[in-house]
Write a structure and sequence with these properties.
- It is built from 11 helices and 13 strands.
- It has 294 residues and is an alpha/beta fold.
- It starts with a strand and ends in a 10-residue tail after the last helix.
């Protein structure tokens, strides 16, 4: 049985600033600032490799950055499949961290020219799961390539997992339009804000239950409140978070998705997969940046 996981989507240069004191407008604020490789999809791929999964990452970078980002992925035990964009630079995000909240200033750069058609049939033929984030849906010029990817995966019996990625972008795009665009996916990984936008509900159990009518497996993350799991034939259940010293929450959702998928391809059990995801997320928040330490 295939166990490889194909991840496609954004790869980013992150600039992460963690202020040491409350931010002071119009003057200096002492901070810890780090340059990190990022991008929600690439982060998930790095965590998957770190957790021992077999993983390929399909992404797009600017000229001059291919070797750097390929090496970051190789160091995380990921097989990189990067395309160099001749026109746009590698995407960049400036992340300002305030406790468990983040403000992000995003320039997608070369990621804007990546499409789901870049995931080849050859990669799908060897895969158990293909994973992507909402950024590849919400900012795509059309949904045709994404729908083709889901159809190609379904034809091969390959599971499709989606992390919605951005409540704000979903609100702009339209919740029903987004859900229709990922119809046929197997696993959905929304966070609390995304679940609220996608369902119009306020209760996490109701959010998971509502989304569970459209997707076989839903794991709704709630930060330090844990996760709500809904899967076909079972009532939604809540799992507690693993206590951890919070340094930077960036990438915790990506780590959860990776922990879930790494376990799920091994045993097919959503509950133990969710428990694995919670443990991975707890590890992620203890260091600056969105990827596992090398």
């Amino acid at each position: 049985m295939a166990k490889r996981i194909v991840v496609f989507g954004d790869v980013i240069d992150d600039i992460v600033a963690v202020p040491s004191i409350p931010v002071r407008p119009d003057t200096d604020t002492p901070s810890q600032i780090r340059h990190r490789a990022g991008g929600s999809a690439a982060n998930a791929a790095a965590w998957l490799g770190h957790l021992g999964a077999q993983v390929d990452f399909v992404g797009r970078v600017g000229a001059g950055d291919e070797l750097k980002h390929a090496q970051h992925l190789i160091d995380a035990k990921v097989t990189p499949r990067l395309t160099v964009d001749a026109e746009l630079p590698t995407g960049t995000i400036v992340v300002i961290v305030d406790g468990d909240r983040r403000t992000m200033y995003t320039d997608r750069g070369a990621n804007a020219n990546l499409t789901a058609d870049d995931v080849t049939d050859e990669l799908l033929d060897a895969a158990a799961v293909v994973h992507f984030t909402g950024y590849s849906v919400l900012q795509a010029p059309s949904q045709d390539a994404n729908r083709r990817l889901i159809a190609r995966a379904n034809e091969r019996g390959v599971a499709v997992s989606v992390d919605p990625a951005s409540a704000g972008f979903i609100e702009d795009f339209g919740a029903e339009k987004f859900l229709s665009a990922i119809e046929g996916a197997t696993i959905l990984f929304p966070n609390l804000d995304e679940g609220r936008v996608l369902t119009g509900r306020d209760d996490p159990l109701q959010m998971a239950s509502e989304l569970g009518k459209r997707f076989p497996i839903v794991a709704l993350t709630q930060g330090h409140e844990g996760v709500v799991l809904a899967h076909a034939g079972f009532e939604p259940i809540a799992l507690e978070a693993v206590p951890a010293r919070l340094v930077d929450p960036t990438g915790a959702g990506d780590a959860f998705s990776a922990g879930f998928l790494a376990a799920w391809v091994e045993n097919g059990d959503p509950l133990s997969a969710a428990e694995s995801g919670v443990r991975a997320a707890a590890r992620a928040v203890t260091n600056v940046g969105a990827r596992p330490p090398v």
